[in-house]
Design goal:
Shape of chain A: globular
Radius of gyration of chain B: 32 Å
Largest interface: A-B, 101 and 109 residues
Largest sheet of chain B: 22 strands, antiparallel, barrel
Helix content of chain B: under 10%
Helix content of chain A: 25-40%
Strand content of chain B: over 45%
Structural class of chain B: mainly beta
Largest sheet of chain A: 2 strands, antiparallel
Distance between the termini of chain B: 50 Å
Number of helices of chain B: 11
Number of strands of chain B: 53
CATH topology of one domain in chain A: Serine Threonine Protein Phosphatase 5, Tetratricopeptide repeat
Structural class of chain A: alpha+beta
Order of helices and strands of chain A: HHEHHHHHHHEEHHEEEHHEEEEEEHHHHH
Number of strands of chain A: 12
Number of helices of chain A: 18
Oligomer: heterodimer
Strand content of chain A: 5-15%
Distance between the termini of chain A: 84 Å
């Protein structure tokens, strides 16, 4: 031990320290790690496949339950005066008793901005990918369009909102001021206008789920109309709206495509239910797929929220909450309000003429006195093709732009610019012509009215036979309840009938039931708007407003329409009056649904816009002031 | 991979250099003789076995045998050192003698006890920092629990320990040292087990009986040596090593029983039916001529009796320990089995440990320490929703408490109710309730945690006082979970129309692999007898790798095979992720004292972490402490009462790096829930930036100032320690909420600051110390005040608990600048509306007076007996704006009091632990004191509801619950409690009866845990926090109740 003196020691310690210092520098790499199971922006966006994956991420936000997948379908009051939320809730956005912290509103806001940031990130990295310029342009156009559409949703429902045209890069970017609506609209229009030159045509895309030139043009028409109306009131946009709509109606010949209306109104929705596309009519739709049993989560609640109420477990019928009950006023917009069947064939599809209960299902028809009990009937899960039909998870796509909407938008914008011109009137009449089934084979058996359920009890559903009437092809199915036939449901309507065929019931163990066939009135009904309705720009405008409800009810468009027309509060309060004291000929709501007038009583000026959540306002100091009334 | 090789290269070169530079071993040569003698216990005069007799300044040592005798070879100049646990060491110079008898003084409380601190040990009297020292043998070893954290509560001042609930394997033991220093990140302390710092330590992997010592480092001076990982405090655990003694085989075994200390009192069938009738569900019950009176004496089903059982705990520990001068060993194994108090739940552990220390030469020593444990726990999660949505009807205890006791039907009797999965009166479309007993029995949900911990060291005494130690550690943890839900479970229930998964199950595995290497050089030197100096420098590195994988399989065709039949289903969710992080550190410490009177400690650590960007990788954490031993001053020498008095002051910085592995980089995720299907095709998986990186992110730093006083009085019969501290944490590593216009919900930021300040007092007294009888008391109390100093651009942060859809809009917690984190937010409950609040507009028609504010419901619909809240802003209605702070989540003080009595072979240990001043929200009451749900039994307390005949301010009338989704002071309860945490009684058979059987000792114990709890809390147990976090403390909904345990044990040493 004596061999070590302190000096030696010091020397050796220094050696050690020096070695250590050397080690430090050589071990620097040790502290550099890269994510193992996640990509970074540097390691992504290189291939077309990756780009498409990023693009799917941008589209994704349209079809989440926070947006068109669930909440917007009947649960956020977007149907305004067309329907009421039949759930008994006394709080929340569905019944216009909203607190600023309403979670559905906050989520909706969040999801649009998620989509915007995803679009921005994609736009900023798109140049890195090895892919054809044509496809790159299409992706660029789609991302631009979606960014704009998401901003459109925001400006529609919240007014002045932060405008985001760059991806957020830093955690310190927590301040964004409310951009005036006009500027937001201008950016939306600029983005969409650019997108219109980039995306593929409807013919090239071939189905409504991906953004195509017609979709961009049609939505541009909608954006311009909205900007021209309240609250921005930039009336110069009516002309642009007209021009964009016209571009859908008369596309560039080199697009090689002509949009047309499906001759059958109900078939438009049957196609949605059956997962079929018809890009002639349905220009852009929110896509849903599957029933959630395949590991994906691309399902929606179209038909489950806004379908015909059903809570049994008949495997042929899907569960439905039946949230949306039509208002009697909507019913009264159609022809023949006192009759079971309207010549306007939209009514008895859009507003369910029956309800469903039990397992197996019994369909029970409504009487003409039951107006407030009827749910939305547009999306009927019975028609769904994916099996099994799971409770909350379905594949039905939701329309975001239909050709009939474009025609009506054209008419409205044209009327604003040039008055009720022939072109404008023709556009509306085109929609009405289809509504009255003018291009369908006449006449068919559209409905059966059971006048006597039977004198002897039925134990099973009898066979229904149609005889006489001059036509053929009608087939129907009977439903019995408590020994009586309560409904006969048309399976195929047939054609060529000149008078009502005779209905006979055979089998089923009962006897004595009597039913009458109700024929369509395609050959005889008049579908064109009257001279009175087209007599002045104001009258024509009113006709268009009503037509929009008849054509587009429950398609999440009504609230925005009413707002831009400045009629939201008036119309909502009118429903309150209808339901509580009546407004001849519109009846009051039955006593068990009187309480549903709550939403229309509660609604006030402040509901023109949704509130920002207090959390968001505290995190973004620029988001001031809060929307009025909250 | 490359980096790894590089790293090993550097390490290797480091070790080689150390060895090359510092070679040569010199052996002393001297005159040798043999000394023999016996060693006695100074108090009892009995011979002592196993006393270590060692030559001073040498590693040569022997132990006394069964006869108390020893023989050792030594020189005349040598000094013999006698050491024995519980006795003061004794030094005797050999001189010319060849027979030396020694008498050891019995004193376990000398200040010469050595305390293990970070990277070294210090004499207790020389401590400059604040270190909580636990007497393991007298405290946690007595507690009949599985893991050490469950036994720590109330034992050490400043260490607040609370369980989230009693769920086996998921007790959620929350240890907070000196207050929560982080808002969103973990506040768990750093565990250092046998020198290996581990952020991911699973306390359940350690057998309490293997623990030699537990010390808790609390102040900056003590923890700064752990730098970036020390900010939440450090718990240093040393396990038992082999001792220089003949082999001793010890066995401890116990068998115990567990029970709940209370049940919830629910309504009797009569009261239940009465309530149902009032709610309009009479037709369900008044069938076949039944009237309410028909239910008067019906017993009904007691669902709690069906669910709860007497739990069983079986513990077996066996160990062999011993050693020679060259080799010491400790081999131990344990089995722990617990069938817990809820049917089909429980936990098991199988564990083994080997510690081996070998002296290779005078200069080299090596050792290994290997622990393997396999913990498992199984059963229904009581407090977790068993379905995707936060459906209030899907929780276990909700179902058990609320399941109705009777039916009113002939075709669905109570036997049917008991045996059928579905209560046939419920509407299965919106009520997903199932028979909780059947479901619990059928649910398969098991988790294994297999942990291997292996650590090897080599020490080299380079020259006198200078030692080099290198340690290598690996820690491998595999956590596997399997679950399967057949058609008799809530999750696999085929009648639930929302169940698209059918009968389903899955597997999940998380593998964590950590290796670390530490190289430490220590130097000790005394200059001129007055200056004591020791120094330590070190270099350490660590790498952690984590992999998670799993899948679920839905619509399993063959449910009879259970988990093994997953292949007959459709693959669904697939989980897969991996991550790694690395840490490099340089550390150093200097201790200096002058005459053991003025003591100074300076330490520093530099930590480099892969978690931060190139510019922010390194954090530097210096600290300093100064202590002044007043009692060593001459002016104090005459004060006989004071044996020791020491003033301490310390200040330093420590850090916290508990963030994800790559928080500085933007990360993209390809996710099922970001996908889109075009043209009805199989969805295209969507990709988006899921994590916004923050390249500015850096270490969270906490600065702590500590002032302490250690007093030892009356011949050390009284020991008093008091510490005051202030801990300011800044640059909080906050997973900060981002405004959503950014597209991100959160991002890591260094934002915000918290202050924790408090005072801790420890008082240990030896009240009676007689030959046959002794009584010791240990008392500690801690006060901590937590205050948020800043938040990220926000003035407050709201937290919502997802448990019930009606409450998804209602934040329950607020964290506000200037206030403690995690306070309750809600309405002030004012009882019920009374007749005097109304105008009687017509006979029996009451309209709320215009001057009386509404409770948020429409004025016209409010009736006498409805719930009433305070209208704080006076706008005539109670809405969001009338919420205020209605409770505190953190206690004002916590502490423990233990009394140890010993009489001859008997010992009695009585330990109370308390928590005072914290509130708990008893959310169960929101469900069981009047709700809108039908067929749901209620607490018996709700029979005292408002009726015209019973006008009160307690419970609102039937259906008088007011607007939904409101938290109010009605359900905020004071959760202060004091509990008899551990009570143990032991008897040890005197050695004289045993010696002829070659048995060293046999003892019997009866021990109880949680035997008695005194509290005003009305739930199962006040120690509850089912959604525990700093921001969301004290939420009680469907918690697995803590049980009380009584065990009978035997321990024997051969």
């Amino acid at each position: 031990m004596q061999r070590y003196n302190f000096f030696d020691m010091k020397y050796k310690l220094i050696c050690l320290l020096v070695t250590t210092m050397v080690l430090v520098s050589s071990c620097k790499k040790f502290l550099e790690t890269t994510p193992l199971s996640n990509n970074t922006p540097e390691t992504f966006y290189g291939t077309e496949k990756q780009i498409m994956s990023a693009l799917a991420g941008v589209y994704d936000r349209i079809s989440r339950s926070q947006t068109y997948g669930d909440q917007m379908l009947g649960r956020m009051g977007l149907d305004a005066d067309e329907a009421f939320f039949n759930n008994g809730a006394v709080e929340g956005v569905a019944v216009y008793n909203v607190s600023a912290s309403d979670v559905n509103i906050a989520n909706n806001y969040n999801f649009w901005y998620d989509g915007i940031n995803r679009a921005n990130a994609l736009l900023e990295n798109l140049h890195k990918a090895a892919m054809s310029e044509e496809n790159r342009n299409a992706v660029r156009g789609e991302a631009l369009f979606l960014r704009a559409y998401y901003h459109f949703m925001l400006v529609l429902y919240w007014g002045d909102v932060p405008l985001m045209t760059k991806a957020v890069k830093s955690a310190n970017e927590t301040y964004a001021e409310r951009t005036p609506s006009k500027k937001v609209y201008e950016q939306i229009i600029a983005d969409m206008t650019e997108a219109e030159t980039l995306v593929k045509t409807a013919r090239e895309v071939g189905f409504g789920g991906r953004i195509n030139k017609s979709a961009v043009r049609g939505i541009l028409a909608r954006v311009c109309l909205q900007m021209a109306g309240a609250p921005v009131n930039d009336i110069s946009k009516y002309k642009e709206a007209r021009d964009w709509a016209l571009k859908v109606m008369l596309p560039d010949p080199k697009d090689g495509f002509q949009h047309t209306l499906n001759p059958s109104y109900q078939d438009v929705f049957i196609k949605y239910c059956q997962d079929k596309y018809d890009i002639g009519e349905s220009i852009w739709e929110a896509e849903f797929q599957g029933n959630a049993t395949d590991g994906f989560q691309e399902t929606g609640r179209v038909g489950s929220n806004n379908g015909i109420l059903y809570s049994g477990s008949d495997p042929n019928y899907g569960f439905s909450y039946g949230y949306l009950n039509a208002t009697a006023r909507l019913w009264y917009l159609f022809d023949n309000p006192t009759q079971l069947l309207s010549a306007d064939e939209r009514r008895d599809w859009s507003i369910a003429p029956y309800t469903t209960t039990g397992t197996p299902v019994i369909e029970t028809p409504f009487t003409t006195a039951q107006l407030y009990e009827r749910t939305s009937g547009k999306w009927r899960r019975e028609l769904e093709v994916v099996s099994p039909k799971t409770n909350n998870w379905g594949p039905i796509n939701f329309p975001l732009l239909r050709f009939s909407d474009v025609l009506l938008m054209f008419a409205e914008a044209e009327n604003k610019v040039n008055g009720p011109t022939t072109a404008a009137i023709d556009a509306v009449n085109k929609v009405r012509r289809r509504a009255y089934g003018k291009d369908l084979p006449a006449e068919s058996v559209r409905m059966v009215q059971v006048t006597n359920g039977g004198t002897t009890n039925y134990t099973s559903a009898p066979t229904v036979t149609f005889t006489g009437g001059g036509g053929s092809g009608a087939a129907a199915k009977a439903f019995i309840s408590a020994g009586k036939i309560i409904r006969v449901k048309m399976l195929t309507e047939g054609s060529g009938y000149t008078s009502a065929p005779t209905i006979t019931f055979t089998g089923g163990g009962g006897a004595g039931a009597i039913a009458t066939a109700l024929l369509s009135k395609r050959a005889t009904s008049a579908y064109e708007l009257t001279a009175l309705e087209t007599g002045s720009p104001e009258a024509f405008q009113q006709a268009i407003e009503d037509e929009r409800s008849r054509e587009l009810s429950f398609e999440c468009l009504r609230k925005a329409d009413l707002i831009r027309w400045g009629k939201f509060i008036t119309n909502m309060k009118r429903i309150e009056r209808d339901m509580t004291i009546g407004n001849s000929p519109i009846p009051t709501a039955p006593s068990n649904l009187q309480s549903r007038a709550f939403a229309f009583r509660t609604v006030s000026e402040r509901d023109l816009l949704w509130p920002f959540s207090p959390t968001e306002m505290s995190l973004n100091q620029g988001l001031r002031p809060q929307n009025p009334g909250f | 991979m490359n980096e790894k090789i590089k790293y090993y290269k550097c390490l290797l070169s480091f070790i080689i250099i150390v060895n090359v530079v510092l070679v040569n071993i010199s052996l002393a040569v001297a005159q040798i003789k043999t000394v023999t003698g016996k060693v006695y216990d100074g108090q009892t005069n009995e011979l002592l076995t196993g006393v270590s007799v060692k030559l001073k300044n040498s590693s040569l040592a022997v132990t006394t045998g069964a006869d108390g005798g020893y023989a050792i070879k030594c020189k005349e100049t040598d000094v013999l050192v006698f050491t024995y646990v519980g006795f003061e060491p004794l030094e005797i110079s050999v001189g010319k003698r060849t027979a030396i008898n020694a008498t050891l003084k019995n004193d376990s409380k000398t200040l010469n006890d050595v305390v293990v601190v970070g990277y070294g040990q210090v004499k207790k009297g020389d401590l400059t920092g604040s270190v909580g020292v636990l007497n393991v043998a007298e405290t946690i070893e007595k507690a009949p629990v599985m893991s050490l954290d469950q036994a720590l509560a109330g034992r050490i001042a400043g260490v607040q320990v609370s369980a989230s609930q009693g769920q086996p394997g998921k007790e959620g033991i929350n240890i907070v040292i000196r207050g929560a220093g982080s808002l969103t990140q973990s506040t768990a302390p750093l565990y250092v087990v046998d020198g290996f710092p581990n952020e991911y330590f699973d306390a359940g992997s350690l057998n309490i009986n293997d623990i030699e010592s537990i010390n808790v480092l609390k102040d900056a001076s003590a923890i700064a040596i752990y730098g970036a990982r020390g900010a939440n405090g450090v718990i240093i655990v040393e396990t038992k090593k082999g001792k220089l003694a003949a082999p001793a085989v010890t066995y401890n075994g116990s068998q115990g029983y567990q029970q709940l200390w209370q049940r919830m009192e629910m309504m009797s069938p009569y009261e239940f039916v009465k309530y149902e009738i009032e709610r309009g569900y009479g037709p369900n019950y008044l069938t076949n001529g039944r009237t309410l009176e028909s239910y008067r004496d019906v017993e009904g089903i007691n669902w709690q009796d069906q669910l709860f059982r007497t739990g069983k705990v079986g513990i077996h520990n066996i160990a062999v320990r011993g050693g020679t001068a060259q080799t010491r060993y400790s081999i131990s194994a344990s089995i722990y089995n617990n069938d817990a108090v809820i049917i089909n739940t429980g936990s098991n552990r199988y564990q083994g440990r080997l510690a081996l220390d070998q002296t290779l030469s005078q200069k080299f020593k090596v050792g290994v320490n290997v622990n393997y444990s396999s913990n498992s726990y199984y059963g229904t999660d009581a407090s977790i929703t068993n379905r995707d949505q936060a459906s209030v009807t899907s929780y276990l205890l909700y179902n058990v408490l609320g399941y109705r006791p009777v039916t009113g039907r002939n075709d669905f009797t109570e036997d049917d109710l008991l045996n059928n999965l579905i209560d046939s009166d419920i509407n299965t479309n919106n009520d997903y309730r199932v028979n909780p007993i059947l479901s619990t029995k059928n649910e398969y949900n098991k988790t294994w945690n297999n942990t291997l911990f292996a650590n090897a060291y080599l020490t080299y005494d380079i020259i006198k006082g200078l030692t080099f130690k290198t340690t290598g550690t690996i820690n491998v943890n595999d956590a596997n979970r399997e679950y399967f839900y057949n058609s008799f479970t809530a999750q696999g229930n085929p009648t639930n129309p929302g169940n698209y998964r059918g009968q389903w199950g899955g597997k999940q595995a998380t593998d964590r692999y950590i290796w670390s290497n530490e190289n430490i050089l220590t130097y000790k030197k005394k200059f001129n007898t007055n200056h004591n100096f020791d120094a330590m420098v070190g270099f350490s590195s660590q790498k952690t790798k984590m992999k998670t994988g799993g899948f679920s399989s839905i619509n399993v065709g063959n449910e009879l095979l259970g988990i093994n039949g997953l292949a007959s289903g459709t693959p669904s969710t697939i989980i897969n992720s991996a991550g790694e992080n690395t840490l490099l550190s340089y550390l150093g410490r200097i201790n200096y004292d002058y005459k053991s009177k003025y003591l100074l400690t300076l330490s520093a650590r530099a930590d480099g972490s892969s978690k931060f960007s190139a510019n922010n990788k390194w954090g530097y954490f210096p600290s300093g402490a100064f202590a002044w031993k007043l009692s060593s001053e001459s002016f104090m020498k005459n004060i006989k009462v004071i044996n020791d008095a020491k003033l301490r002051v310390s200040y330093g910085l420590v850090g916290n790096n508990r963030v994800d592995d790559y928080p500085y980089q933007d990360q993209l995720t390809q996710a099922v829930d970001a996908s889109y299907s075009w043209n009805n095709a199989t969805p295209t998986l969507g990709t988006f930036i899921s994590r916004l990186g923050n390249s500015d992110l850096t270490w969270e730093t906490s600065k702590q100032l500590d002032l302490g006083l250690d007093l030892s009085l009356f011949k050390r019969r009284i020991e008093f320690i008091v510490d005051v501290y202030r801990k300011d944490t800044k640059d909080l590593l906050l997973n900060a909420a981002m405004p959503r216009f950014t597209g991100y919900a959160t991002a890591y930021k260094n934002i915000g600051a918290i202050r924790n300040q408090g005072i801790e007092i420890t008082l240990n007294t030896v009240n009676i110390k007689k030959k046959d009888f002794s009584w010791e008391t240990n008392f500690n109390i801690s006060f901590n005040r937590n205050k948020v100093l800043a938040l990220s651009g926000e003035t407050n942060r709201l937290e919502t608990i997802q448990w019930n859809q009606n409450y998804t809009n209602s934040p329950l917690y607020i964290t506000e600048v200037g206030q403690p984190a995690g306070q309750f937010l809600g309405y002030i409950w004012e009882g019920n509306y009374q007749y005097s609040d109304f105008d009687e507009t017509a006979t029996g028609v009451y309209l709320l007076k215009a001057a009386v504010p509404t409770n948020g419901n429409p004025r016209a619909s409010i009736k006498p007996g409805d719930i009433k809240y305070r209208d704080l802003n006076g706008d005539g209605t109670v809405d969001d704006k009338d919420r205020t702070i209605i409770g505190r989540g953190t206690p004002i003080h916590t502490g423990g009091l233990s009394n140890i009595f010993k009489y001859k072979g008997f010992d009695l240990n009585v330990f109370f632990q308390w928590s005072y001043g914290n509130d708990v929200i008893n959310a169960n009451r929101l469900m069981f004191e009047g709700t809108s749900l039908n067929l749901l039994n209620q607490f018996a307390t709700y029979t005292n509801r408002w009726t015209p005949e019973n006008q009160n301010n307690e419970q609102y009338r039937t259906n008088g619950y007011g607007p939904s989704g409101r938290y109010s002071t009605k359900v905020i309860e004071d959760a202060s409690y004091i509990r008899l945490k551990t009570l143990s009684f032991g008897y040890r058979i005197p050695a004289k009866y045993l010696s002829k059987y070659k048995i060293k000792s046999i003892g019997f114990t009866v021990a109880a845990q949680n035997l008695l709890t005194i509290t005003n809390y009305t739930g199962f147990d006040p120690e509850v926090s089912t959604r525990n976090s700093v921001l969301t403390p004290g939420f009680d909904y469907s918690a697995y109740p803590n049980a009380r345990t009584v065990v009978f044990g035997i321990n024997a040493t051969l």
